[in-house]
Specification:
single chain, alpha+beta, phage-related protein like fold, Immunoglobulin-like, six-stranded mixed sheet, 15% helix, globular
Length: 389
């Protein structure tokens, strides 16, 4: 029997269009939430005065004993501004014909990307600006604050030699933990001696994850690289950042956009009836690591991390420091913000991923020496000769 079926009436049937876009909410930067914000930068570099040498008191022997003198000194730690920016070109005809506010949809996603890039660079050194110091993972690794994965997760986190113990041995108290999402399942599987779960006590309520009183954060902006670390624990009050230029949004309509590689013109906005959304953000960060009674040489780190089952491969970079008389013990070797003290043989050994690193070597009574060491796929060595003042 002949009927007007759906196929024949398809042209007359309107499609319902939902009035919103199904998407995940933009995620913010974890580091910018947890670290301590300094006053805004007034130039591309800010200098922080940091306590470097502590004064010492001495017992006086007898009524006529001679009192000794002491000193106190300060060092400079610099925050250098790195720039994040993006340009999003859009034809004006597309904007006119769209039923959604395209610019309004783009801006939150750009902000999310900025947060992701900041976190990845600060925690893991991913695509970090050349002027920035070493990332948190590299700095913690130099201080020996990396904990190998093992069968007893509770001991690796909270026991002797665990990540919290590593932070505390440097004289710091952890106040935050940042981890990949898959760590939640590992924590839920932890049981006490009676088999009861340590983290989830009530299946009807959301678990509040914390370790030894330190709140846990499970970022979902995609920055956390679980091939490098499973969890990062530390005293985030010791990490500081400053903003040189807060997020600035500008609409361009007369610019010419050039391919950064080939240098050829890609778009001429005025000629092609286009606009472009330009977003710029500039900031810097530092780990000042001032001298304390528990770390007078400033060689510890307020952060520690739990490694994955297969740790990331690093190469040793051995510095040998000497003067005209021979090797020097007790010299401070600073490799892009990570510090070690030379041993009795005048050596300091760093474990670094591939890349180029700025270094500075100093010791009282000598002129400081600066340079760059490059680490590739094999161990690297660097000889440094100090000259007396």
């Amino acid at each position: 029997m002949a009927i007007i079926n759906r196929e024949r009436a398809e042209a007359l049937i309107e499609e319902q269009v939902v009035s919103n876009i199904f998407q995940d909410a933009p995620k913010e930067s974890v580091f910018l939430q947890l670290a301590r914000r300094m006053p805004n930068m007034t130039s591309n570099q800010t200098r922080i005065k940091v306590l470097d040498v502590l004064p010492m008191a001495y017992w006086v022997n007898g009524d006529t004993g001679v009192k000794q003198t002491s000193e106190q000194a300060w060092d400079n730690v610099h925050i250098s501004a790195g720039e994040l920016a993006v340009i999003v070109p859009i034809p004006e005809a597309v904007l006119d014909d769209a039923s959604f506010d395209i610019l309004g949809e783009v801006q939150p996603r750009v902000m999310e990307s900025i947060g992701q890039k900041v976190d990845a660079a600060v925690f893991f050194g991913a695509n970090k600006p050349a002027e920035w110091r070493s990332d948190i993972i590299t700095t913690a690794r130099q201080a020996g604050n990396n904990v190998a994965d093992g069968t007893d997760l509770y001991e690796k986190l909270l026991g002797v030699g665990g990540v919290f113990d590593k932070v505390e041995n440097g004289g710091y108290m952890a106040n935050g933990c940042v981890s990949a999402l898959n760590m939640r399942a590992k924590l839920r599987s932890l049981r006490d001696d009676n088999g009861a779960p340590l983290f989830t006590q009530n299946m009807q309520e959301g678990a509040r994850y914390a370790l030894d009183g330190s709140p846990m954060y499970f970022p979902r902006n995609g920055f956390f690289d679980k091939s490098i670390a499973q969890m990062v624990v530390g005293d985030f009050s010791q990490a500081v950042y400053a903003i040189r230029q807060d997020v600035t949004v500008k609409i361009l309509d007369q610019a010419t956009i050039i391919d950064p590689v080939s240098k050829t013109v890609v778009y001429s906005l005025a000629q092609q009836d286009m606009i472009a959304l330009r977003v710029v953000f500039r900031m810097g960060w530092a780990l000042p690591n001032p001298a304390t009674r528990l770390d007078e040489d400033r060689v510890t780190c307020p952060f520690a991390y739990l490694e994955p089952a297969t740790a990331v491969t690093t190469q040793t970079a051995t510095f040998t420091v000497a003067d005209s008389s021979g090797n020097i013990a007790g010299a401070i070797v600073d490799v892009n913000g990570a510090r070690l003290k030379t041993n009795a043989s005048g050596q300091a050994v760093f474990n670094l991923r591939a890349g180029s690193y700025a270094y500075k070597v100093k010791k009282d009574g000598y002129k400081a020496v600066s340079g760059t060491i490059t680490v590739a796929s094999a161990a690297a060595t660097q000889s440094v000769t100090l000259v007396a003042n």
